[in-house]
Amino acid sequence: MASFVSSSILLLFLFFPIVMPLPLSTNSRWIMGEGGRRVKLACVNWSSHSELMLAEGLSKQPMDTIAKQIVSMGFNCIRYTWPVYLLTNDSLASLTVRQSFQQFGFIDVQANNPSIIDVPLIKAYQVDRFSIGSNLGKHNLMVILDNHISKPGWCCSNLDDNGFFGDKYFNPDQWITGLTRMATLFNGVTNVVGMSLRNELRGPRQNVNDWYKYMQNGAEAVHSANPDVLVILSGFDFDRDLSFIKTQPVKLTFSGKLVFEAHWYGFSDGPQTWVTGNPNEEPMSMAIANRYLNCFLGVAAELDLDWALWTLTGSYYVREGVVGLNEYYGPWIIIGVHPGIRASYKEFQLSKLLSGVSQRPGLSEVKPHKVIFHPLTGLCITRKSFDHRLRLGPCTNSYAWSYSPHKTLLVNGTHYCLQANGSRTSGKIGIFCTGSNSKWEMISDSKMHLSTKLGDGKSICLDVAPDKTIITNSCKCISKDNTCDPSSQWFKLVDSTRSSKRVKRSLLQ
Ligand SMILES: *[C@@H]1O[C@H](CO)[C@@H](O)[C@H](O)[C@H]1NC(C)=O
Ligand SMILES: *[C@@H]1O[C@H](CO)[C@@H](O)[C@H](O)[C@H]1NC(C)=O
Ligand SMILES: *[C@@H]1O[C@H](CO)[C@@H](O)[C@H](O)[C@H]1NC(C)=O
Ligand SMILES: CC(=O)N[C@H]1CO[C@H](CO)[C@@H](O)[C@@H]1O
């Protein structure tokens, strides 16, 4: 009887849509839902700030299909971009979608999204009126409204006059008006959970005084117009620098809503770092997209970050004057010439796993422990399987490890520890944990190799065989060799407070 009951509960979790506990608020560094439950944002950017001011991709597929794809890829949220002029320039905002396209001599969305063709742009953007939003709500996607730019068009450069308060197209009063109107428009739309006040500040005018003055004003304006949303602030230099908030806190009249965002790209530290550099020596300074991605996934899992991917778009209606330009940094799906999922998408199943290793502050299911996360696959070292060999599996089925001061990795509640199996190539769980083959250190500049020493003093590293069993191997490309790829040997010891048993709970943090 008991087992019957528990399997019905599992089914409920599987088949009923998960209702997000909204609105969101913050508690220390965590984003929480109503009732004190953590909600971890796993977002993808959906661009709607081009000259056409319409969410990209609607020429390729119906909105509903796009929304379903977003959910099926494991995202729970979109970062939905908008230009200030959409809210402050009536002659632009009142254009219909058809008229907006006509300026470029073509109309592209009629076949797939006929319901929006004669709708004004501002309404086409609204998630509560037209299908974009009701669809997003229906699919349980949370939405962050991101003010991307003032004057609609491709973003962002140091010289585009949209970079900082006072630039030609960045009038602070107009910006506040735009934010206020946007916040008001979505007041009461529960799946709109946050507003990102301005994307990637940049350019010669950047300075700390203006940042505090205007960001604080902007945050207050948004909060007065819509007290439910999180207010999300960007830093300097394309949002790579938020260091100044360490010394001067942001002062607001309200609490529990403030979030900071930072941006990190494969090219943030120079265009070639990840292509030519040794990834062990450079991973923290930053393209072979996968080298960057594996490092990012390790960091994101370790810090348990809420995150957003740039970008959903496969191609743009018009970008920088070119019709149908491809987006190469949006590697996961093409909402483009051939809508579908790129081969490299399979990597992005990782999004689910990433959210699978998170902590649950305030409401932990079990005592804090470590999981051993493998960024390349998004998997963790799991409980022994049928043949007693250690292997990778879903992080929800991970061993709970503790990492002792003696550098042993013990399975919680037992005397068993992770060991190199002599000079053999397998990793194993053993009981005599005092030998050198039971001491594990994170080595290399990346600190992502889990290494131990054999009896003869030789270092070996934990690695993964093609069949996903855990093996030991000589440590790969620790230094100098820039051509080799160490990522099969990259692991992270990640804090977790989740029970590894209740798998379905992982759907909601
Ligand atoms: C509104 O946008 C149009 C088209 O870009 C521009 O010509 C006009 O000057 C703008 N009006 C205001 C008030 O910014
Ligand atoms: C560790 O084991 C103890 C007892 O064996 C158990 O009560 C506890 O929940 C376990 N903790 C984790 C993190 O699994
Ligand atoms: C460890 O190595 C021994 C000797 O080759 C082998 O018999 C055993 O199966 C290995 N253990 C594991 C868990 O792989
Ligand atoms: C994280 C982020 O928002 N990145 C990009 C968003 O959009 C523009 C294109 O409009 C990029 O240039 C940003 O850097």
UniProtKB/TrEMBL annotation:
Record flagged with keyword DNA damage: no
Family stated for the protein in its record: Belongs to the glycosyl hydrolase 5 (cellulase A) family.
Lineage, opening ranks: Eukaryota, Viridiplantae, Streptophyta, Embryophyta, Tracheophyta
GO molecular function: hydrolase activity, hydrolyzing O-glycosyl compounds
Species annotation: Hibiscus syriacus (Rose of Sharon)
Boundaries of every Glycoside hydrolase family domain copy: 62-282
Keyword field: Glycosidase, Hydrolase, Signal
Signal peptide bounds: 1-21
Pfam families: Cellulase, Ricin_B_lectin
Keyword Transit peptide: no
Annotated InterPro entries: GH, Glyco_hydro_5, Ricin_B-like_lectins, Ricin_B_lectin
Gene Ontology biological process terms in this record: polysaccharide catabolic process
Protein's recorded name: Cytochrome P450 86A2
Residues in Ricin B lectin domain copies: 375-475
